[in-house]
Amino acid sequence: MDYIIREIKKSEYSLLSDFLYESIFIPEGIEAPPKSIINIPEFQVYVSDFGSWKHDRALIAETDGKVIGVVWVRIMNDYGHINDETPSFAISLYKEYRGLGIGTAMMRKMISILKASGYEQVSLSVQKANYAVKMYQKVGFEVFCENEEEYIMINYLQR
Questions:
Q1: Which residues form the N-acetyltransferase domain (predicted)?
Q2: Is residue 19 part of a domain?
Q3: Where is 19: in which H helix or E strand?
């Protein structure tokens, strides 16, 4: 499949809300929550006023002019928050484009950008049952800490 990965345009920031919903891990046999769930403060921290914070960065994957995925980072007090110098990672692809290596390519490109920008590390939070854990490990994330349901993972960028 042919696709490109590029920086997000300001006019596309509104897409982050759609992809935020797509990023919610829903285990097999569990009913998806309503789309309105992204309006709660715990989710809005990922997208609210995106682009107005110093550390906001996002990349888009597109094919044939259609946006199919987004990876974005910002320093925020989210589930994967480590400290105020560590950006948190978010990634989402439409279901039909998962498992094709696009997400891995998006993550590698964002990691490269963060390394070049001098960040020491980047973090994320992921449910233990999420198949994406393996992808995160493949691109250099390690388990930093965990609770019953989730891992907080870190990629130490300057190693």
A1: 3-158
A2: yes
A3: helix 15-22
